[in-house]
Design goal:
Distance between the termini of chain C: 25 Å
Shape of chain C: globular
Distance between the termini of chain B: 45 Å
Helix content of chain C: over 70%
Low-confidence stretches of chain B: none
Strand content of chain C: under 5%
Shape of chain B: globular
Structural class of chain B: mainly alpha
Chains: A alpha+beta, B mainly alpha, C mainly alpha
Structural class of chain C: mainly alpha
Helix content of chain B: over 70%
CATH superfamily of the domain at 54-227 in chain B: MetI-like
Strand content of chain B: under 5%
CATH class of the domain at 54-227 in chain B: Mainly Alpha
Oligomer: heterotrimer
CATH architecture of the domain at 54-227 in chain B: Orthogonal Bundle
Number of helices of chain B: 11
Radius of gyration of chain B: 23 Å
Largest sheet of chain B: none
Low-confidence stretches of chain C: 267-276
Radius of gyration of chain C: 23 Å
């Protein structure tokens, strides 16, 4: 039975459907029975560590690799046999892959020329797309005279000018410096929304995924770990892997005694989860920014501050209690060796089933 | 360390040594006497009679013809092969590369007589065709060696990007791959051409039916007594080489100027 | 990920089998046969006779002498050039290469006129009143010819390696107290060894197998391996013996290359290094 992770919405909105995709290299299974559907105009991000299969998934969608098993269905039709140059999908590559022997205009016009579009129309389209990516007037420039950010935008323009139904982006911002990355993240989101194209974005940077996506698909070792909106993934991680990968967290072993009642770290807490077996062993996740600091003795858990690091937006504080280290983000400063108490509200305690296979 | 002047003198002596025979050839091309030992006055007669010497002109004709034809063939063969070899992996690739390198490593006399033996074995007549084949055999490895690194340097994603944008494999080859490796192809062609023009040993053993080249002509004359028309020919060749180098360098200089103008941003 | 358009490689595989592998196998085959067609070792036995062994010995001796002289004379040239201002050194490098574009036979022939009995050198010597020198048709002439033709092949690889030496390494050494002699002995020279090995290879191989230089400058009777082979395949018509000589020469070269390849840059065979 195919698991339905996604939210409501009707089936005719699905533009891309991956069914039972498996990909092996020799003995190594890179993608393990993947099922995923993507809706029109969605900004979907495939998120995961290196080797999780996200880039391979992208390659299979684009047609650069063939799955050993399974179907790639585009707009209702199986396109496994369709070669990449015939698919209405375009890709933005991680290292841009600009044609260095052509200038900006020729690069962007490449796909249009193949479609034998009249020159006049090409000129207009190129001009419009360059304006969209903020590179107006750059037509005659050679690729090696451009900065990294500009090359990136040419790569995006070159793909978008062909008006693809789906745009695949393979870690396109990986080579940019931090400030430029953040700018481009907003740019890409803006472009996606204004053009109404489906974006499938691949990254290993969870912050990037949280910023840009409508839907995040968290992957590890060729399997989907969780699909959801950024808020869902962040607030309700389904398992330890997702909890560890997204944001920072404190994870403890716990026991669910009853609905809304869990105990960990030596005491019982009230929580908002239910539906577990009596006394089931679970993973408990608490985000660092959800822990409230109190006077020593007045907290549910009490301990000693062992590390304080200033991070600009907040202090990253480590507290040791009962031989466990707790990570806390707080805007108020504390001192090392200070005795401190910690409080947690029920809605900030997230319960996850223990994973059967560990990462 | 060693004095500046000592260095300069040493270097000058080295260059004098290298250029001495050439200068000698040029000077004696203007000698009115036939001897290459004593100067008998200035004359241009050898340049004039050069253009009447049928043997030399025929040799020149064949030399250039063979060089052009064999370089074109080896450039095309070498480029296609390099593209194919680049996609190979494992022991097969190593084997092909090592075999490819054999004509480069082997002394030319071994390559020459092995080819000659092959042609005899298959009872082929020696002539223009065998000569061309022989030249292609020894030139193609150099083309492959020129083109392969350019293929390696080409970013992997470039071909994917072209296909992604709708290009068929053939279109990709024409519009993306070939322009990217063009400098390698050109270098390969030039090396083939140069080696072919200058070749003696391989041509000597693999030609016949009156097909000859300059090197073979000079060889047969060198033992009998070389006519100063050869000196005149060498002078002309030398001047053309100089002009070619000058033009090539000028083109490079212009290209560099244009590049410098672009890097602003 | 490269999707194999694997048709491109086949023409060359076929071509190289026919025109590179098969010819060499024919030579190998003939070296073990005689005119009767029977398998025999008589060609190789003939090789080990003293007069033929002497030819091999001479070839290796002269090639070795020329190689060593090229190294001694050529290393300083490469070194001096590498230290020059980039503007000048490219130009001078080019000037070094230009003579190589002149026809190889012409240049060798020119030496005949210079060092011959009635050649320029002797003409000048006679004019000054000094005794004439009998250089042509001797070992000296052949070595001279080899050095002349192959010197640039020694200079270029050494030069190429020298200019690639990171200047920061030299600065670091100086910073640590080394003077110019020490820097050369312990840093520059060791780093240049791959180039030296390259140069030795590119000189020794053609030198040991030449036949033009020995024929023109050594005279009709002069015998090096190359001349011997040529003789067998042309005048004498004994391709069986000729093949055996060729095989033996290839073995000599393969052994030399195996020894020298320990120092070579691994990239070069795949087509890196030299050109780009």
């Amino acid at each position: 039975m195919k698991e339905v992770f996604n939210l409501q919405d009707s089936n005719k909105d699905i533009i891309l459907d991956l069914k039972n995709i498996t990909k092996k290299y020799g003995d190594n299974t890179v993608i393990d029975n993947l099922n995923l559907y993507i809706r029109r105009n969605e900004f979907v991000t495939l998120l995961g560590p290196s080797g999780c299969g996200k880039t391979t998934t992208l390659n299979i969608i684009a047609g650069f690799e063939e799955p050993n098993n399974g179907d790639v269905i585009f707009e209702g039709k199986v396109i496994n046999e369709v070669p990449p140059h015939k698919r209405q999908i375009n890709t933005v590559f991680q290292r841009y892959a600009l044609f260095t022997h052509m200038n900006v205009y020729e690069n962007v016009a490449f796909g249009l020329r193949i479609k034998k579009i009249p020159e006049k129309e090409i000129r207009e389209k190129v001009k419009a797309i360059l304006k969209l990516v903020d590179l107006e007037g750059y037509e005659k420039r050679s690729t090696d005279s451009l900065s990294g950010g500009q090359q990136q935008r040419v790569a995006i323009a070159r793909a978008l000018v062909n008006e693809p139904k789906v745009l695949l982006l393979d870690e396109p911002l990986a080579a940019l410096d931090l400030k430029l990355r953040k700018e481009m993240q907003l740019e890409l989101k803006r472009i996606q929304q204004s053009l109404g194209i489906t974006f499938v974005f691949v990254t290993h940077d969870q912050e990037e995924a949280l910023t840009m996506s409508d839907t995040i698909v968290v992957m590890n070792k060729g399997r989907i770990q969780q699909i959801g909106t950024p808020e869902d993934i962040y607030n309700e991680p389904k398992n330890k892997f997702v909890a560890r990968f997204i944001g920072e967290s404190n994870i403890f072993d716990g026991i669910m005694h009853d609905d809304y009642r869990v105990s960990f770290e030596g005491r019982e807490f009230q929580c908002v989860d239910k539906g577990f077996d009596k006394d089931e062993k679970v993973d408990v996740v608490i985000r660092p920014e959800d822990i409230k600091l109190e006077e020593y003795g007045k907290g549910m858990i009490n301990g000693i501050v062992t590390s304080v690091i200033f991070k600009g937006v907040h202090y990253e504080i480590e507290v040791e209690a009962n031989n466990k280290k707790w990570l806390i983000h707080n805007t108020k400063q504390v001192k090392i060796d200070e005795k401190i108490g910690m409080n947690i509200y029920p809605e900030d305690i997230h319960i996850m089933r223990k994973a059967r296979d560990m990462e | 360390m060693v004095g500046k002047w000592a260095k300069r003198i040493y270097l000058s002596l080295a260059y004098i040594f290298l250029y001495a025979p050439i200068v000698f050839l040029i000077i004696f091309s203007f000698n009115s006497g036939k001897s290459s030992a004593s100067w008998q006055g200035f004359s241009l007669k050898w340049y004039v009679s050069l253009f009447d010497n049928q043997r030399i002109l025929k040799a020149l004709y064949y030399t250039v013809l063979v060089a052009v034809v064999s370089s074109l063939v080896s450039t095309i063969l070498g480029t296609i092969s390099a593209i194919g070899i680049d996609k190979m992996t494992g022991w097969k690739k190593k084997a092909v590369l090592n075999i490819n390198y054999l004509p480069v490593l082997n002394p030319d006399i071994v390559t020459a007589i092995s080819l000659m033996t092959l042609f005899i074995f298959f009872r082929l007549t020696f002539g223009f065709k065998t000569l061309i084949v022989a030249h292609v055999v020894f030139s193609t490895p150099y083309v492959i060696v020129s083109v392969l690194p350019k293929l390696k340097q080409m970013p992997d994603d470039l071909v994917k990007a072209a296909q992604d944008l709708g290009a068929t494999p053939f279109y990709t080859l024409r519009k993306v791959i070939l322009p990217q490796i063009a400098p390698g192809i050109l270098a390969g062609f030039l090396i083939s051409f140069t080696m072919s023009i200058d070749d003696f040993v391989i041509s000597f053993f693999n030609t016949g039916s009156g097909v000859t080249n300059l090197s073979i002509e000079i060889y047969s004359m060198a033992r009998r007594g070389v006519s100063p028309e050869i000196n005149a020919l060498s002078t002309l060749m030398f001047i053309s080489i100089f002009i070619l180098i000058f033009l090539a360098n000028k083109k490079d200089l212009i290209k560099n100027e244009r590049k410098r103008g672009k890097v602003d941003d | 990920m490269k999707k194999s358009k694997s048709i491109a490689q086949y023409p060359y595989i076929v071509w190289s089998i026919i025109f590179i592998v098969v010819p060499l196998f024919l030579i190998l085959y003939f070296s073990f046969t005689n005119s009767g067609g029977a398998f025999t070792l008589e060609n190789y036995e003939k090789l080990f006779q003293p007069n033929y062994m002497k030819v091999f010995y001479n070839s290796v001796k002269l090639a070795a002498i020329s190689t060593v002289l090229c190294l001694i004379l050529g290393y300083p040239i490469a070194y001096i050039l590498s230290k020059l201002d980039p503007k000048y050194r490219t130009l001078l490098m080019l000037l070094l290469i230009v003579p190589m574009w002149m026809n190889f036979l012409l240049r060798t022939y020119a030496w005949m006129s210079i060092i011959g009995r009635n050649g320029i050198i002797n003409t000048i010597l006679k004019a000054i009143g000094l005794p004439t020198m009998n250089i042509l048709y001797t070992d000296t002439a052949v070595v001279l010819g080899m050095i002349y033709n192959f010197l640039p092949f020694m200079v270029i690889p050494i030069y190429t390696v020298l200019i690639k030496i990171d200047q920061n390494v030299i600065k670091a050494a100086a910073d640590l107290g080394a003077n110019k002699f020490v820097i050369f002995r312990r840093i520059i020279f060791p780093l240049s060894i791959p180039g030296v090995m390259s140069g030795i290879t590119m000189v020794f191989m053609p030198a040991v197998s030449t036949f033009v230089i020995s024929k023109l400058l050594g005279g009709g009777q002069y015998m090096l391996i190359g001349n011997l082979i040529e003789l067998q395949f042309t005048t004498v018509g004994d391709r069986y013996f000729g093949s055996a000589i060729s095989i033996l020469m290839m073995v000599i070269i393969l052994i030399s290359m195996a020894i020298l390849s320990k120092y070579e840059d691994k990239d070069e065979k795949e087509g890196g290094g030299i050109l780009w």
